[in-house]
Design goal:
Helix content is about 40%, strand content about 15%. With about 190 residues, it is an alpha/beta fold. The protein has a single domain, classed as 3-Layer(aba) Sandwich (Rossmann fold). Helix 1 runs parallel beside helix 2. The protein is globular.
């Protein structure tokens, strides 16, 4: 795992623990000489994870769309900041640059990025570990929703298993390094069953 992409909120949330965990992830990546790739912002959890990695001597690559850079939320102190044309280009470049993905607390943007990566893994477009850091149960409702998808027959159990879940940020790299991708099986239509 030379490069990990972190998806997280551009807000800090209401509880200090969210920022603390983001700081812990940044420090962990720097301590293991793992480059942080993230959305390029200087605010919220995005800023916290980037700043902590930089302060610990880590390498940080930000990827931000031009319109967000123009709103002055782009982090100008990174190792490298790539400004792209769109959110779609941002997600593709972050994926291309990364060996794996970690999601921290966030909202629509974080879930959008996480779910797109999970979909690409499910379809076999990529085979990269994807982990959710469930800070003090923040994602419990989302995880129950995924289980509901399985119960209702819309998500196969092997695809549900594509999302690793961890509560302790100090274990995320070990969990991701132990990840073994499951080969994508041929899609079978209802008529073929």
């Amino acid at each position: 795992m030379k490069t990990i992409c972190v998806f997280c909120g551009s807000s800090a949330g209401k509880r200090e623990v969210y920022r603390q965990k983001a700081v812990g992830v940044g420090k962990l990546l720097a301590a293991h000489a793992t480059t942080l790739v993230y959305g390029g912002g200087r605010v919220g959890l995005m800023g916290a994870v980037a700043d902590s990695a930089l302060q610990a001597g880590g390498r940080v690559i930000g990827v931000i769309p031009r319109h967000l850079m123009d709103l002055e939320v782009g982090h100008r102190g990174l190792t490298e900041l790539r400004v792209v044309a769109s959110m779609h280009e941002r997600k593709q470049l972050m994926c291309d640059l990364s060996d794996g993905f970690v999601a921290l607390p966030g909202a629509f943007g974080t879930l959008d990025e996480l779910c797109e990566i999970l979909t690409w893994n499910q379809l076999g477009t990529i085979q990269k570990p994807t982990l959710l850091l469930n800070v003090e149960g923040y994602f419990d409702h989302f995880l129950r929703l995924l289980d509901h998808f399985v119960e209702e027959g819309f998500l196969k159990p092997q695809n549900r298993a594509l999302l690793l879940v961890e509560e302790d940020e100090t274990r995320i790299l070990a969990r991701m390094q132990a990840y073994e991708p499951v080969p994508v099986k041929k899609w079978i239509t209802e008529a073929e069953r």
